[in-house]
Amino acid sequence: MRNRYVILALALVFAAALVLGGCGGGDKKPAAPAAPEKMKVAFVYIGPVGDAGWTYAHEQGRKYLMEKMPDIQSTIIESVPEGADSERVITQLAEQGHKVIFTTSFGYMDPTINVAKKYPNVVFMHCSGFKTAANVGTYFGRIEEARYLTGIAAGKATKSNVIGYVAAFPIPEVVRGINGFTLGVRSVNPNAKVKVIWTNTWYDPAKEKQAAVSLLDAGADVIAQHQDTPGPQQAAEEKGKFSVGYNTDMSKMAPKAVLTSAVWNWGPYYVKVIDSVKKGTWKSEQYWGHMSDGIADIAPLGPMVQEDTKKLIADAKAKIVKGDLKIFAGPLKDQSGAVKVPAGQVMSDKDQLGWTWFVEGVDGTIPK
Amino acid sequence: MSEQSIIISILAAAVTAGTPILYAALGELLTERAGILNLGVEGIMLVGAVSGFIAAVATGSCWWGLLAAMAAGGAVAFIHGVLTITLRANQTVSGLALTLFGTGLSGYLGKSYIGMPVPQAFKATTLGPLSDIPYIGPILFRHDVLVYASYLLVPAMAFFIYRTRPGLILRAIGENPAAADALGFKVFSLRHLYVIAGGMLCGVGGAYLSLAYAPSWLENMTAGRGWIAVALVVFALWDPWRALIGSYLFGGVDALGFNLQVLGVTVPTFFLSMMPYLFTILVLTLLMAKSGGRVVPPGALGLPYDREDR
Hints:
The complex is a heterodimer. Chain A is an alpha/beta fold. In chain A, 40% of the residues lie in helices and 19% in strands. Chain A has two domains: 140 residues, 3-Layer(aba) Sandwich (Rossmann fold), CATH 3.40.50; 182 residues, Response regulator (Rossmann fold, 3-Layer(aba) Sandwich). Chain A is globular. Chain B has a domain of 202 residues. The longest helix of chain B has 31 residues. Chain B is 71% helix and 0% strand.
């Protein structure tokens, strides 16, 4: 009997070691600093760097930063849950002497603000939030502009005039993406409809693939998506149809299907922030970057994209970058055809951040 | 799109979405029939999925991937066997530890394989005239080899458990290991055997996800299917046929949700995500009620067997 408790205790220790090992494994510290005055920068991630989506894109940005600025030192902490845990992690990073800390998920907003109060000499950068302080700035990008361009590719590629959109959660960020995409589609193909279905997942490859399959069965011949996995792209590939990826270039996963992807490119912005901190010119701001800053872009177009489509996309991109084309400029009609944003006006940032209706051309509803 | 073709597409989706759960549930069923509760199914599936994927990338063949997934699934289950059968550790604790272990290990092993395409995946193949039968063909016989194998596995397992002598012995070691031991059956070796065999099946369930259903490796790609399999085994009253019904129901209702959305039926999406769970539990509870309303797990399930303990 005594034996049994020993084993039970061992099993518990084993389990505990795994849990701790799992968390500790996220720390990555590059080799010991050659010069002690190297500036230390930290990144807090919501997921694993290998999620092939959101966190992966941020990690690519960090790598870009390290390449451009080899004189800094960076630390990453992966899979940090939002809430109390993140506050502890951020405090620890500040305590360790990191000069700039990037917190890359919406739910880190309050923890970041709380920790920032205690460390006024540390610069905090919070991604996708809306609260700032003297030493806390926020940053995000208008990926909708990139989605608009992918919409052009989809609108030209469709033959059935039904485009499927596998949507994640019914929140303004996703709605904005669908609207931007649809406006892109309709700019080249006013007869096309974008059929939306919701999966309520960010990350379930099999389920998201299944959602895409039901759209394809219903006649869609191009698939777009908002989740972090390539499941929908694979569904399109298997059925010999086309698709549009998100977050990172998804053409590797479905080479015959992917027309292009709307991608995040955080690297140049990270370089800009670190550069301004070094020079002492950094000031707290709410940055919501346009495509002209390079923060959002599209992946290289696939070989199946026609020449005239390529030209349309290049032209639209040039206009967006120059600021001549505002994708959410009026007249914007909702699904019933009522004008919501009159001609001559551009939808305000505030309205865009709280967007809860679909533009004309979207076939689907937003669950309340 | 006609109503018929929608129904066919939902039923066909039920089969593909249900298959990974079915394999895992059959594996857990075998393990539990031998009296060992293994809550590590989720972890084993993940290790199976990643091992299968790595082997398929390394060799260029999904068959080697399948073998590797089975070997890895069996190996991880063997850890559980050593802890719970040989060392008589608490099965719940060991199983939970195994899930944590499997999740971490698979993430670690698969790190450099994320975003990589697999050179060869299990592709849908038709079965000659069978695939052309109206209705049944498109629903059942236009899938990949692993789905066909599961069609054979369910009756084979049911036959084994209920109609063969080794099956009787399997049930005996799960019901009353002391009696089986007294009759001269090697309780410890047999339990190890079934735990490993169950782990291999869970490994196949994982490999189905990474090599057939959504051919790619992504961390945590099983997304809770292992836990669904564990729960299904209970609702299925440790019976392979009911496990099949439960798995397909779960897959089917999941697919139905998307098809309802396509048809423009407005149902709150959170309700849709809830539906497969609700519906599966409901139907299996009804099945349970029909069979007398009693849940009788294998008598010695979860209890470590100790010869000295009387």
